[in-house]
Protein backbone atom coordinates (compact mmCIF):
# COMPACT_ATOMS: atom_id res chain seq x y z
CA UNK A 1 0.00 0.00 0.00
CA UNK A 2 1.44 3.33 -0.96
CA UNK A 3 0.77 6.51 1.00
CA UNK A 4 0.75 9.88 -0.74
CA UNK A 5 1.01 13.20 1.05
CA UNK A 6 -0.38 16.08 -0.97
CA UNK A 7 0.32 19.66 0.11
CA UNK A 8 0.14 18.42 3.66
CA UNK A 9 0.11 21.14 6.28
CA UNK A 10 -0.22 21.33 10.05
CA UNK A 11 -0.50 24.56 11.97
CA UNK A 12 -0.49 24.74 15.75
CA UNK A 13 -2.12 28.13 16.20
CA UNK A 14 0.15 30.46 14.23
CA UNK A 15 3.11 28.03 14.18
CA UNK A 16 3.48 25.87 11.06
CA UNK A 17 4.90 22.48 12.09
CA UNK A 18 4.42 20.76 8.70
CA UNK A 19 4.61 23.05 5.74
CA UNK A 20 3.12 21.93 2.45
CA UNK A 21 4.69 18.54 2.10
CA UNK A 22 4.39 16.39 -1.03
CA UNK A 23 5.74 12.89 -0.66
CA UNK A 24 5.07 9.27 -1.40
CA UNK A 25 5.78 6.38 0.97
CA UNK A 26 6.16 3.51 -1.47
CA UNK A 27 4.47 0.16 -1.20
CA UNK A 28 6.43 -2.44 0.80
CA UNK A 29 9.32 -0.05 1.34
CA UNK A 30 10.74 1.22 4.61
CA UNK A 31 10.83 5.01 4.45
CA UNK A 32 12.70 6.85 7.17
CA UNK A 33 11.83 10.35 8.34
CA UNK A 34 14.85 12.08 9.82
CA UNK A 35 15.69 15.63 10.81
CA UNK A 36 16.46 17.82 13.83
CA UNK A 37 14.24 17.88 16.89
CA UNK A 38 11.00 19.73 16.18
CA UNK A 39 11.16 19.41 12.38
CA UNK A 40 7.75 17.71 12.27
CA UNK A 41 8.51 13.97 12.08
CA UNK A 42 6.07 12.80 14.76
CA UNK A 43 3.41 15.22 13.57
CA UNK A 44 3.58 13.70 10.07
CA UNK A 45 3.36 10.18 11.45
CA UNK A 46 0.39 10.97 13.66
CA UNK A 47 -1.47 12.67 10.83
CA UNK A 48 -1.32 9.38 8.94
CA UNK A 49 -3.44 7.56 11.53
CA UNK A 50 -5.35 10.70 12.47
CA UNK A 51 -4.06 10.92 16.01
CA UNK A 52 -3.41 14.47 14.82
CA UNK A 53 -5.76 16.12 12.33
CA UNK A 54 -4.12 17.93 9.45
CA UNK A 55 -4.82 21.60 8.79
CA UNK A 56 -4.95 21.24 5.00
CA UNK A 57 -3.81 19.07 2.11
CA UNK A 58 -4.54 15.39 1.76
CA UNK A 59 -3.28 11.94 2.67
CA UNK A 60 -4.10 9.27 0.13
CA UNK A 61 -3.77 5.57 0.83
CA UNK A 62 -3.95 3.33 -2.19
CA UNK A 63 -5.83 5.99 -4.10
CA UNK A 64 -8.28 6.85 -1.31
CA UNK A 65 -8.23 9.96 0.88
CA UNK A 66 -8.11 9.11 4.58
CA UNK A 67 -11.21 11.31 4.96
CA UNK A 68 -13.12 8.57 3.15
CA UNK A 69 -11.86 5.81 5.43
CA UNK A 70 -13.52 5.17 8.75
CA UNK A 71 -11.02 6.21 11.47
CA UNK A 72 -11.26 2.86 13.27
CA UNK A 73 -10.62 0.94 10.05
CA UNK A 74 -7.79 3.32 9.23
CA UNK A 75 -6.05 2.71 12.56
CA UNK A 76 -6.51 -1.04 12.26
CA UNK A 77 -4.83 -1.00 8.88
CA UNK A 78 -1.80 0.65 10.48
CA UNK A 79 0.32 -0.94 13.18
CA UNK A 80 1.79 1.68 15.49
CA UNK A 81 5.02 1.10 17.39
CA UNK A 82 6.38 3.74 19.72
CA UNK A 83 9.22 4.10 22.17
CA UNK A 84 8.98 2.16 25.47
CA UNK A 85 5.72 3.46 26.88
CA UNK A 86 3.67 1.49 24.39
CA UNK A 87 2.90 -1.60 26.50
CA UNK A 88 0.12 -1.85 29.10
CA UNK A 89 1.98 -2.63 32.36
CA UNK A 90 -0.89 -4.51 34.01
CA UNK A 91 -1.33 -6.89 31.07
CA UNK A 92 0.77 -9.94 30.23
CA UNK A 93 2.83 -10.04 27.06
CA UNK A 94 0.16 -12.30 25.55
CA UNK A 95 -2.66 -9.89 26.36
CA UNK A 96 -0.69 -6.89 25.17
CA UNK A 97 -0.19 -8.47 21.75
CA UNK A 98 -3.79 -9.70 21.66
CA UNK A 99 -5.35 -6.26 22.15
CA UNK A 100 -6.24 -5.54 18.51
CA UNK A 101 -7.18 -9.13 17.53
CA UNK A 102 -9.60 -9.13 20.51
CA UNK A 103 -11.07 -5.81 19.38
CA UNK A 104 -11.55 -7.47 16.02
CA UNK A 105 -13.30 -10.35 17.82
CA UNK A 106 -11.05 -13.10 16.52
CA UNK A 107 -11.69 -16.42 18.24
CA UNK A 108 -9.26 -17.28 21.06
CA UNK A 109 -7.60 -20.17 19.18
CA UNK A 110 -6.73 -17.92 16.26
CA UNK A 111 -5.46 -15.23 18.66
CA UNK A 112 -3.24 -17.74 20.45
CA UNK A 113 -1.77 -18.97 17.16
CA UNK A 114 -1.07 -15.43 16.04
CA UNK A 115 0.48 -14.30 19.34
CA UNK A 116 2.75 -17.37 19.47
CA UNK A 117 3.71 -16.94 15.82
CA UNK A 118 4.62 -13.29 16.41
CA UNK A 119 6.60 -14.02 19.56
CA UNK A 120 8.59 -16.61 17.62
CA UNK A 121 9.14 -14.11 14.85
CA UNK A 122 10.60 -11.50 17.22
CA UNK A 123 12.76 -14.20 18.83
CA UNK A 124 10.98 -14.42 22.17
CA UNK A 125 10.17 -17.97 23.24
CA UNK A 126 6.37 -17.92 23.75
CA UNK A 127 6.43 -20.67 26.39
CA UNK A 128 8.67 -18.48 28.57
CA UNK A 129 7.50 -14.98 27.70
CA UNK A 130 3.77 -15.03 26.96
CA UNK A 131 2.81 -15.02 30.64
CA UNK A 132 5.30 -12.39 31.75
CA UNK A 133 4.44 -8.78 32.49
CA UNK A 134 6.32 -5.94 30.76
CA UNK A 135 8.23 -5.11 33.96
CA UNK A 136 9.72 -8.63 33.90
CA UNK A 137 11.33 -8.06 30.49
CA UNK A 138 14.46 -6.18 29.44
CA UNK A 139 14.07 -2.96 27.46
CA UNK A 140 14.99 -4.75 24.23
CA UNK A 141 12.51 -7.55 24.89
CA UNK A 142 9.75 -5.03 25.63
CA UNK A 143 10.49 -3.31 22.38
CA UNK A 144 10.20 -6.61 20.51
CA UNK A 145 6.81 -7.17 22.15
CA UNK A 146 5.91 -3.68 20.91
CA UNK A 147 6.81 -4.69 17.35
CA UNK A 148 4.83 -7.93 17.70
CA UNK A 149 1.82 -5.97 18.96
CA UNK A 150 2.06 -3.54 16.07
CA UNK A 151 1.91 -6.46 13.67
CA UNK A 152 -0.81 -8.43 15.48
CA UNK A 153 -3.70 -7.86 13.11
CA UNK A 154 -1.38 -8.09 10.10
CA UNK A 155 -1.74 -4.44 9.07
CA UNK A 156 -0.49 -3.38 5.65
CA UNK A 157 1.22 -0.34 7.07
CA UNK A 158 3.48 -0.01 10.06
CA UNK A 159 4.17 3.36 11.67
CA UNK A 160 7.22 3.36 13.92
CA UNK A 161 8.19 6.36 16.02
CA UNK A 162 11.77 5.96 17.29
CA UNK A 163 10.97 2.35 18.23
CA UNK A 164 14.56 1.57 19.28
CA UNK A 165 15.36 5.02 20.65
CA UNK A 166 15.50 4.03 24.31
CA UNK A 167 17.62 0.91 23.83
CA UNK A 168 21.36 0.85 24.51
CA UNK A 169 23.57 0.76 21.39
CA UNK A 170 24.51 -2.93 21.50
CA UNK A 171 20.99 -4.26 21.95
CA UNK A 172 19.82 -1.68 19.47
CA UNK A 173 22.00 -3.25 16.76
CA UNK A 174 20.54 -6.67 17.54
CA UNK A 175 16.99 -5.33 17.41
CA UNK A 176 17.68 -3.58 14.11
CA UNK A 177 19.13 -6.76 12.60
CA UNK A 178 16.14 -8.77 13.84
CA UNK A 179 13.78 -6.17 12.48
CA UNK A 180 15.41 -6.23 9.04
CA UNK A 181 14.95 -9.99 8.95
CA UNK A 182 11.30 -9.55 9.86
CA UNK A 183 10.72 -6.91 7.20
CA UNK A 184 12.31 -9.16 4.60
CA UNK A 185 9.63 -11.71 5.45
CA UNK A 186 6.58 -9.51 5.95
CA UNK A 187 7.23 -6.75 3.39
CA UNK A 188 5.07 -4.02 4.92
CA UNK A 189 4.89 -0.39 3.95
CA UNK A 190 6.77 1.17 6.87
CA UNK A 191 7.17 4.80 7.90
CA UNK A 192 9.95 4.98 10.46
CA UNK A 193 10.92 8.04 12.49
CA UNK A 194 14.42 8.29 13.88
CA UNK A 195 17.01 10.91 14.73
CA UNK A 196 19.89 8.44 14.34
CA UNK A 197 21.44 8.66 10.87
CA UNK A 198 23.18 5.29 11.17
CA UNK A 199 19.84 3.68 11.93
CA UNK A 200 18.27 5.56 9.01
CA UNK A 201 20.89 4.34 6.55
CA UNK A 202 20.87 0.82 7.89
CA UNK A 203 17.10 0.32 7.82
CA UNK A 204 15.77 2.72 5.21
CA UNK A 205 15.06 1.79 1.61
CA UNK A 206 14.26 5.46 1.27
CA UNK A 207 15.14 8.51 3.35
CA UNK A 208 13.24 11.75 3.79
CA UNK A 209 15.29 14.56 5.32
CA UNK A 210 13.12 17.18 7.01
CA UNK A 211 13.92 20.70 8.08
CA UNK A 212 11.43 23.00 9.83
CA UNK A 213 8.39 21.25 8.46
CA UNK A 214 9.68 20.97 4.89
CA UNK A 215 11.32 18.22 2.87
CA UNK A 216 14.96 19.09 2.31
CA UNK A 217 15.74 15.96 0.27
CA UNK A 218 14.06 12.64 -0.44
CA UNK A 219 15.15 9.56 -2.33
CA UNK A 220 16.57 6.08 -2.10
CA UNK A 221 19.08 5.80 0.71
CA UNK A 222 22.00 5.43 -1.68
CA UNK A 223 20.89 8.34 -3.86
CA UNK A 224 20.72 10.62 -0.84
CA UNK A 225 24.00 9.44 0.66
CA UNK A 226 25.85 9.68 -2.65
CA UNK A 227 24.34 12.98 -3.78
CA UNK A 228 23.43 15.18 -0.82
CA UNK A 229 21.63 18.19 -2.22
CA UNK A 230 23.00 20.85 0.10
CA UNK A 231 24.95 21.59 3.26
CA UNK A 232 21.95 20.89 5.51
CA UNK A 233 21.70 17.34 4.17
CA UNK A 234 25.47 16.90 4.41
CA UNK A 235 25.30 17.95 8.06
CA UNK A 236 22.55 15.42 8.77
CA UNK A 237 24.48 12.68 7.00
CA UNK A 238 27.67 13.52 8.90
CA UNK A 239 31.28 13.25 7.87
CA UNK A 240 31.59 9.58 7.10
CA UNK A 241 28.38 8.98 5.21
CA UNK A 242 30.05 6.92 2.46
CA UNK A 243 31.34 4.65 5.17
CA UNK A 244 27.86 4.44 6.64
CA UNK A 245 26.54 2.92 3.41
CA UNK A 246 28.32 -0.21 4.58
CA UNK A 247 25.42 -0.54 7.00
CA UNK A 248 22.95 -0.46 4.17
CA UNK A 249 24.65 -2.79 1.70
CA UNK A 250 24.05 -6.46 2.29
CA UNK A 251 26.42 -9.39 2.23
CA UNK A 252 23.99 -11.16 -0.11
CA UNK A 253 24.52 -8.40 -2.72
CA UNK A 254 28.29 -8.68 -2.67
CA UNK A 255 29.04 -12.36 -3.09
CA UNK A 256 32.05 -12.89 -5.31
CA UNK A 257 31.37 -16.46 -6.40
CA UNK A 258 29.43 -19.60 -5.62
CA UNK A 259 32.09 -21.84 -4.22
CA UNK A 260 32.61 -25.54 -4.65
CA UNK A 261 32.06 -27.29 -1.33
CA UNK A 262 33.56 -30.48 0.02
CA UNK A 263 31.75 -33.00 2.17
CA UNK A 264 33.96 -33.27 5.25
CA UNK A 265 33.53 -37.05 5.39
CA UNK A 266 34.65 -37.54 1.78
CA UNK A 267 37.39 -34.94 1.73
CA UNK A 268 39.99 -35.34 -1.04
CA UNK A 269 43.10 -33.40 -0.02
CA UNK A 270 44.92 -33.58 -3.36
CA UNK A 271 41.86 -32.38 -5.29
CA UNK A 272 41.21 -29.55 -2.84
CA UNK A 273 44.80 -28.30 -3.24
CA UNK A 274 44.12 -27.76 -6.94
CA UNK A 275 41.26 -25.33 -6.24
CA UNK A 276 41.71 -21.68 -7.27
CA UNK A 277 39.68 -20.43 -4.37
CA UNK A 278 41.46 -19.04 -1.30
CA UNK A 279 39.27 -21.08 1.00
CA UNK A 280 37.93 -24.61 0.84
CA UNK A 281 34.48 -24.94 2.34
CA UNK A 282 33.50 -28.08 4.18
CA UNK A 283 29.94 -29.28 4.55
CA UNK A 284 28.20 -32.06 6.41
CA UNK A 285 24.78 -33.21 5.20
CA UNK A 286 24.88 -30.27 2.76
CA UNK A 287 25.13 -27.75 5.62
CA UNK A 288 28.08 -25.55 6.42
CA UNK A 289 30.61 -27.30 8.66
CA UNK A 290 33.76 -25.15 8.47
CA UNK A 291 36.46 -23.99 6.10
CA UNK A 292 40.19 -24.25 5.64
CA UNK A 293 42.48 -21.81 3.90
CA UNK A 294 43.90 -23.31 0.74
CA UNK A 295 47.47 -22.36 1.63
CA UNK A 296 47.02 -24.09 4.98
CA UNK A 297 46.48 -27.43 3.26
CA UNK A 298 50.19 -27.72 2.49
CA UNK A 299 51.01 -27.40 6.17
CA UNK A 300 48.63 -30.14 7.15
CA UNK A 301 50.62 -32.62 9.24
CA UNK A 302 50.97 -36.32 8.52
CA UNK A 303 47.89 -37.15 10.51
CA UNK A 304 45.90 -35.08 7.99
CA UNK A 305 43.73 -33.81 10.80
CA UNK A 306 41.61 -31.32 8.91
CA UNK A 307 39.98 -30.04 12.06
CA UNK A 308 43.33 -28.82 13.35
CA UNK A 309 43.36 -26.09 10.68
CA UNK A 310 39.61 -25.71 10.22
CA UNK A 311 37.84 -22.44 11.06
CA UNK A 312 34.14 -22.14 11.70
CA UNK A 313 33.58 -18.42 11.09
CA UNK A 314 30.81 -17.73 8.63
CA UNK A 315 28.59 -14.83 7.61
CA UNK A 316 24.83 -14.88 7.32
CA UNK A 317 23.70 -13.47 4.00
CA UNK A 318 21.35 -10.84 5.49
CA UNK A 319 24.15 -9.13 7.45
CA UNK A 320 25.40 -5.72 6.37
CA UNK A 321 28.83 -5.19 4.84
CA UNK A 322 29.66 -3.23 7.99
CA UNK A 323 29.07 -6.35 10.10
CA UNK A 324 30.94 -8.45 7.52
CA UNK A 325 34.06 -6.26 7.69
CA UNK A 326 33.89 -6.27 11.47
CA UNK A 327 33.75 -10.05 11.63
CA UNK A 328 36.49 -10.46 9.01
CA UNK A 329 38.81 -8.12 10.90
CA UNK A 330 38.10 -9.87 14.17
CA UNK A 331 38.64 -13.29 12.62
CA UNK A 332 41.82 -12.09 10.90
CA UNK A 333 40.76 -13.45 7.50
CA UNK A 334 40.16 -11.71 4.17
CA UNK A 335 37.70 -14.29 2.81
CA UNK A 336 34.67 -15.85 4.48
CA UNK A 337 31.93 -18.28 3.51
CA UNK A 338 28.36 -16.98 3.45
CA UNK A 339 25.37 -19.07 4.52
CA UNK A 340 21.59 -18.66 4.38
CA UNK A 341 19.13 -19.14 7.24
CA UNK A 342 19.28 -22.93 6.77
CA UNK A 343 23.07 -22.87 7.14
CA UNK A 344 23.53 -23.73 3.46
CA UNK A 345 26.52 -22.19 1.73
CA UNK A 346 25.47 -19.52 -0.77
CA UNK A 347 28.77 -17.87 -1.62
CA UNK A 348 32.04 -16.38 -0.58
CA UNK A 349 32.81 -12.82 0.34
CA UNK A 350 36.22 -11.18 0.37
CA UNK A 351 37.70 -7.72 0.84
CA UNK A 352 37.91 -7.06 -2.88
CA UNK A 353 34.23 -7.85 -3.51
CA UNK A 354 33.30 -5.51 -0.64
CA UNK A 355 35.41 -2.64 -2.00
CA UNK A 356 34.11 -3.22 -5.51
CA UNK A 357 30.57 -2.89 -4.16
CA UNK A 358 31.33 0.31 -2.26
CA UNK A 359 33.08 1.89 -5.25
CA UNK A 360 30.18 1.12 -7.54
CA UNK A 361 27.89 2.98 -5.14
CA UNK A 362 25.98 -0.20 -4.40
CA UNK A 363 24.81 -0.83 -7.93
N1 LIG B 1 0.25 20.27 20.39
C1 LIG B 1 1.15 21.14 19.97
N2 LIG B 1 0.97 22.46 20.11
C2 LIG B 1 1.88 23.35 19.69
N3 LIG B 1 3.03 23.02 19.06
C3 LIG B 1 3.27 21.71 18.89
C4 LIG B 1 2.36 20.71 19.32
N4 LIG B 1 2.87 19.50 19.01
C5 LIG B 1 4.05 19.75 18.39
N5 LIG B 1 4.29 21.07 18.32
C6 LIG B 1 5.47 21.70 17.70
O1 LIG B 1 5.55 21.28 16.34
C7 LIG B 1 6.90 21.05 15.96
C8 LIG B 1 7.02 19.65 15.40
O2 LIG B 1 6.83 18.70 16.43
P1 LIG B 1 7.10 17.15 16.23
O3 LIG B 1 6.78 16.46 17.50
O4 LIG B 1 6.44 16.69 15.00
O5 LIG B 1 8.69 17.18 15.99
P2 LIG B 1 9.70 15.97 15.81
O6 LIG B 1 10.44 16.25 14.55
O7 LIG B 1 9.01 14.69 15.94
O8 LIG B 1 10.68 16.25 17.05
P3 LIG B 1 11.49 15.26 18.01
O9 LIG B 1 12.60 14.70 17.17
O10 LIG B 1 12.01 16.19 19.07
O11 LIG B 1 10.53 14.24 18.52
C9 LIG B 1 7.74 21.32 17.21
O12 LIG B 1 8.29 22.60 17.09
C10 LIG B 1 6.76 21.24 18.35
O13 LIG B 1 7.14 22.10 19.39
TrEMBL record:
<dbReference type="InterPro" id="IPR003593">
    <property type="entry name" value="AAA+_ATPase"/>
</dbReference>
<dbReference type="GO" id="GO:0016887">
    <property type="term" value="F:ATP hydrolysis activity"/>
</dbReference>
<comment type="similarity">
    <text>Belongs to the ABC transporter superfamily.</text>
</comment>
<dbReference type="InterPro" id="IPR000644">
    <property type="entry name" value="CBS_dom"/>
</dbReference>
<dbReference type="Pfam" id="PF00005">
    <property type="entry name" value="ABC_tran"/>
</dbReference>
<keyword id="KW-0129">CBS domain</keyword>
<dbReference type="InterPro" id="IPR003439">
    <property type="entry name" value="ABC_transporter-like_ATP-bd"/>
</dbReference>
<feature type="domain" description="CBS">
    <location>
        <begin position="306"/>
        <end position="363"/>
    </location>
</feature>
<feature type="domain" description="ABC transporter">
    <location>
        <begin position="3"/>
        <end position="237"/>
    </location>
</feature>
<dbReference type="InterPro" id="IPR046342">
    <property type="entry name" value="CBS_dom_sf"/>
</dbReference>
<dbReference type="Pfam" id="PF00571">
    <property type="entry name" value="CBS"/>
</dbReference>
<dbReference type="GO" id="GO:0015697">
    <property type="term" value="P:quaternary ammonium group transport"/>
</dbReference>
<dbReference type="InterPro" id="IPR017871">
    <property type="entry name" value="ABC_transporter-like_CS"/>
</dbReference>
<dbReference type="InterPro" id="IPR027417">
    <property type="entry name" value="P-loop_NTPase"/>
</dbReference>
<protein>
    <submittedName>
        <fullName>ABC transporter ATP-binding protein</fullName>
    </submittedName>
</protein>
<keyword id="KW-0067">ATP-binding</keyword>
<keyword id="KW-0547">Nucleotide-binding</keyword>
<dbReference type="GO" id="GO:0005524">
    <property type="term" value="F:ATP binding"/>
</dbReference>
<keyword id="KW-0813">Transport</keyword>
Amino acid sequence: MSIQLKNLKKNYNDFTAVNNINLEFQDKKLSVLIGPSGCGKTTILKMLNRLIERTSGDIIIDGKSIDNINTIDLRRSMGYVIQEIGLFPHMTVFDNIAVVPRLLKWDEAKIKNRVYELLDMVNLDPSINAKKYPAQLSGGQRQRVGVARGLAADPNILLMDEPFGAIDPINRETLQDGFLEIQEKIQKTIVFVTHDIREAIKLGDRIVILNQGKVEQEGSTLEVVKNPKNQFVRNILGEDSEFKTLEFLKVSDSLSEIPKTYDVDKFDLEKAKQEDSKIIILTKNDKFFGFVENRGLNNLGDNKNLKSIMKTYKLKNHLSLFDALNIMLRAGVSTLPVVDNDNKVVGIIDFSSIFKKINSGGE
